[in-house]
Amino acid sequence: MRKVIPETNNDMKCKNITRIDEFILVGLSDIPQIQCLLFVLFLCIYVTTILANLSIIFLIRFSPNLQTPMYFLLANFSFLEICYITSTVPKMLSNFFATHKTISFYGCVIQMYWFLLLGGAECYMLAAMAYDRYNAICRPLQYSVILSKKVCTQLISGSWLLGALNALVHTVLTFTLPFCINKIDHFFCDIPPLLKLSCSDTWFNEVAIFVISGSVIVGSFILTMISYVKIISTIINMKSNTSRQKAFSTCVSHFTVVSIFFGSGIFMYFRPKSSYSMDQDRLIAVMYTVIAPLLNPFIYTFRNGNVKMAVRRLMHRMTISQKY
Questions:
Q1: pLDDT digits (tens, 9 = 90+) for 80-103
Q2: What total of structural domains would you count in the chain?
């Protein structure tokens, strides 16, 4: 499938490279006992994440008191999270017990594209949600006018479009590289571990990560922080302690999600190739591909009084309908 010439002069030189038809995914562990434990753990996380986010979408769809821009964005964010975790976890689960832990070349292309698309879309979706909180707290009288259904739809569509463009550029740049090795030291197809398989100089790809991903991750993070600086300034100037506490509580959950997602993403992608540590990177990748989508529904709903009220009302309506 491939021919590799041994390393000379500290550089990997490849000759007679033939097309690689599939990649081997190393995964999180090669110890059978640990693989069984990890399979059960990640299966439970995956099912819980899907059900929790579906519950949020269902609850927002059928609850009259949740028909606001904030919850419209949250419902779309939950749908995005379902797609995001599905882009990596099912393949990881299937490989836990597979004899040959492989993914086809084009399967790897598709997985990377969708992962990057959804990750980029989530960056700007979080920025849009921060903008929503800014208007709700700093411009409460104009909130419903500024964040109309049309504007919310445009924010969501723009997030998906920017994510798609970012994913297209990185996917094309990565898979036009010649690969000497087909063993990916990761549990899914991501840019850093694939760059380590290339025979050629990946300097341009690394620059592209800094420049293009910087405009997506860092750019959306800056937009999010601008909203929060203005929010905090407004909260500090509020005269009522009750108003300050209420305003602050509505932002804590979103800021927690922002910290987890952007923190791990920036650490993962904004380092030189020489500093990549696959063991460390796999752990960080689990944080933003698996743990963050699991925590998000609970972070957003655990302290949300409107959501709790909507749950009680919906259960009451269901109980009445069953009686009659």
A1: 999 999 999 999 999 988 888 899
A2: 1
